[in-house]
Design brief:
The protein is α+β, with helices and mostly antiparallel strands. The chain has 14 helices and 26 strands. Strand 16 and strand 17 form a beta hairpin.
Amino acid sequence: MKTYFYVIVLTLSLVGFRNSTPRQISGTVYDKANGTLLAGVSVKVEGHNARAQTDANGHYSIALAKGDKYLVFQFIGYETQRMGIGKSDKLDVWLNPSVQALEEIVVVGNGTQLKNVLIGRVAGVTTGTRHRIAYESRPPMLYAMDSESYKGITENRFFNPKSEPLSTFAIDVDAASYSNVRRFINNGQLPPTDAVRIEEMVNYFQYNLKGPSNGDPVAIHTELSIAPWNPKHQLLRIGLKAKSVPTDQLPPSNLVFLLDVSGSMASMNRLPLVKASMKMLVDQLRDNDHVSIVTYAGTSELKLERTPGNQKTKIKDAIDGLVASGSTAGGAGLKLAYRTAREHFIKGGNNRIILASDGDFNVGPSSDGDMEHLIAKERESGVSLSVLGFGMGNLKDSKMELMANKGHGNYAYIDNIMEARKAMVTEFGGTLFTVAKDVKIQVEFNPAKVQAYRLVGYENRLLEKEDFNNDQKLGGDMGVGHTVTALYEIVPVGVKSDYPGDVDPLKYQQTKGNTVVSNSSEVANIKFRYKDPHGEKSRMQQVAIADKPQDLSKTSEDFRFASAVAELGMLLRDSEYKQQSGYDELIARAKAAKGVDGEGYRAEFIRLAESAKLLSKSNDLAVETQ
């Protein structure tokens, strides 16, 4: 009888234990418009505080209690979805992009903002040429600009090839401006004009260009058609494609993670996102790669000694243990990172510092000039510097862009986990492994065919014409598989135009360069120089452009899509040279030229342009009501 009693008690205990065990439900969240995975989606059980978030692959898993009936899915820019919980332990969800959310805009003071983010006391703040709103209480991920800094940009103007036949610049593979612009628009704000670097927006996207087939590290491609924003003008596209190298054939890496753990990195979109990003990169490491970790706050510290890439758990544990606090001695951290990289230098390998920060240095050497001087001295060691920008509200974009440019590296802005995946996984080779350094382009325009020309973007990468042949002058670096696009707007001879404008005759000398001696039918001659990753002597290639423009409809999808991105950049900058640019036209062109879009980046651009159109209308309304 006693035995029977214990069996009953044990059975009831097990039943009770089983019923109290939480049920797990999991699934994947997609964008309903194009089927792409959505990372960072908030998943909440209706009725209590149980929450989860989708990972880089759009996957989530959340515990349920007895009686739970609904899950609520929320993501900025998408309609909130309330889903019933059935008997299945799997629930996939498709979210609809929300246009109405961006139409819910009100005018506040001298700016505009979404109705549903007007939380806390509002104070007007002026930055650049646009007005913004600052908040004393902010919901997560919705920040005003506050103390962000951007280098001022004076747009490239039109030049007359009779007096200025040469245009020279260093290439730029950075894409930080695009993801930063996306952050502003997704948060219901137009970006400050100086945050819009058109070349970085264009070069955010990969283009279908053939790589070199003759052993060279870079191949060049060109197209000539009409300029969509002015059919009387022409648009010249110059495309460079770096060679692809299988991962197992890439040289071994000596990497130093230089991680900002100061107090300014404490919020969710900073250090936690840094940790997630760096752990993605750790997953890509091979056995012959090595990692050291340097951190800085009030002081700098070597957090992890040189560790091989096959000890991923050890590296990730060191990353997970980081905590944000204190001031920001970025200069000291940079010095320690360079010293660490030099101590473990791999001859013929990939020696690189990866800096993750908001750029807000405030202890010791901290100015842009200080950083330029420090990096100019250190880069002679052969150690490159790549920069990953994080955070909202005090992003020091100007400093981080300069550091990457001077450090033989690239600059990316990480605004969400999907952008981290793009930089650390999808474009792993291009981010870390250089195949051609100091790449420069020089274009000579034929005045017999060209009345005026203008380089679209690249304002902070311009070089003097003499710099093209000077191997001491820095160019830009191209990584494995990188593509680079540059666009020139051309006013053909014979077209009535106000560009570039006339000047009165000189009094004391004759105006030079007015005689055209060439009878060539070429529009321009393009030269580009590059060095091998470990070389100091440049090599040159060149190609001539025939005066045979194609109809826009017959150009490649890449040409039309890149032109749409550039046109959006001009509208966001309110460019003096936007001419007949319009949102409807560029959106239609981008949709028609979306092509194969496996990662969904082009579809995302189209949604971004549609959102910018709505915000622009609201901004115009704000001006009218002042």
